[in-house]
Each structure stands twice: as C-alpha cells, then as structure tokens.
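Students often ask what a holo structure prediction actually looks like on paper. The answer is less mysterious than it sounds. You provide the chain, you provide the ligand, and the output is a string of discrete structure tokens encoding the 3D arrangement of the protein together with adenosine-5'-triphosphate.
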Amino acid sequence: MTLDAHVRVDRGPVVLDAALHVRAGRVLAVMGPNGSGKSTLVETLAGLLALTGGHVRLGDDVLADAAEGRHVPPRDRQLGVVLQDGLLFGHLSARENVAFGPRARGVRAAAARAAADALLTELGLAPHARTRADRLSGGQAQRVAVARALAARPRALLLDEPFGALDAATRVRVRDVVRRAVRSGLPAVLVTHDLRDALDLADELLVLEDGREVQRGAPADVAAAPRSAYVERVAASVP
Ligand SMILES: Nc1ncnc2c1ncn2[C@@H]1O[C@H](COP(=O)(O)OP(=O)(O)OP(=O)(O)O)[C@@H](O)[C@H]1O
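The corresponding structure tokens follow.
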C-alpha cells in the first residue's frame, strides 16, 4: 500500500504545495521551520483540511481529489494519526483511549483491552493503563496517542511531532515501536524538529519552507549538503 499525494492548500499567509510518495514499510520525515506547513500537510492527508488542488491516494483508494470534488472523511480513511494536540479523551483511562478504536471496529472488549495493554506495556506505560488521560504528563499522553494510532490497525501512519515531549531514552524506545509497526507494512509520514528522528527512522526527508519543498533526499544526504540556512542549522545540531 503506497501513500501518494500532491497537496495544495491555501492557509492564511502560507500556501502549501507539496508532493509525496511513501511506499509500505517506509518513513518519510518532514522537517521545516515553524509555520512552514508541516502540520497543515498532516492535517490535509488525514482529511481534516480540504485540498484546494491535487489528490491523496492510498493504494488504489482515492481519499481526496480536488478536481473530482472527492473528500473521504477522516474517520473513513483508516489512518493512524497523532496530531500535535494529542486530543485524548480526558475522562477515559489510557487503556480505554487506546482500546477505543478497536472497540469502534467491533473488536470485543476483552480483546481490545488486551491489545491496548500490550501496546501500553511496549511503550513503558503499563503502570498508567488505568490513569485518566487528563491526569497523565505530557510525555505519557504523547505515548498514549501513539498507542492509540497503532491500535487502530491503520493502513498508514501520520505522526506530527509524536516524540516532542519525550526524554531521550523514552524517545528511542517509542521510535523502536513505531519502526516495528512501519516495517510490518505501513507507509508513514513523520513530522519532527529533530534530525536524529529522521536519521534514525526515515528513508527520505522532505524539507518544507513557506509551504514549498526546499530539499528532499536520504536524511544523511540532506544533512551532508544543506541547501538552505535552516537545513544548515538543523545539520549542525547533530554532531
Ligand atoms: N487553524 C489555522 N487557521 C488558519 N491558519 C493556520 C491555522 N493553523 C496554522 N495556520 C497557518 O498555516 C501556516 C502553516 O502552519 P503549520 O501549523 O502547518 O506549520 P508547521 O510547519 O506545522 O509549524 P510548527 O513547526 O510551528 O508546528 C502558518 O502560517 C499558520 O499561521
């Protein structure tokens, strides 16, 4: 299953115009300065924003096409999405948040709970399975959001800064869980401000500035030959 998109979205001062092609089992990292359009890209792929031009396809499935006026609603896209504002159900426990998607798909309660617990354990959250989401720390909530995205048996992953609130050791652990999920056969788009995430996890790096692609390639190649001051700064941040 390949995620293939060319998205054009007019948003205030920035017009996002970006193309991507991510094969199953591969990760495309997206980096860029604040306001460059990274979240807009993820929200558009997820179906939360309408295209003003272009298309979003997943395998043979057309999720959006501006010319045809087609727009599949977010809940019908079967994507695992982590947005910047995690949007967990605050009154539900971590486990109930993660089990929510499988339950909605008709998985029986005990099986959904067991799957949620397995994911929470992998992500180091077993002690917090029963904690209400609104009582979790930022880094704990972020991991619950990752678990929830993976639990939904998605056809692709869209992750907007999913590691931002994590300490270094936890970050490595969560990256490993994401890597395994991707390698099982999902295309993934990962927005990050940390080049180490791209170097560690991504096959390709797309750099956006002002809504446009300024550089694209294997993460190490992009870092080795910066084509903008932003990329130069990012490359210098990793020894
Ligand atoms: N809800 C919104 N309504 C209108 N414009 C928005 C909205 N959210 C973001 N924008 C604008 O869209 C542009 C791109 O924002 P976006 O959030 O996609 O950037 P980003 O690259 O994800 O930034 P950051 O690194 O800060 O998360 C910015 O000019 C921003 O002001």
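The chain has a mean pLDDT of 95.
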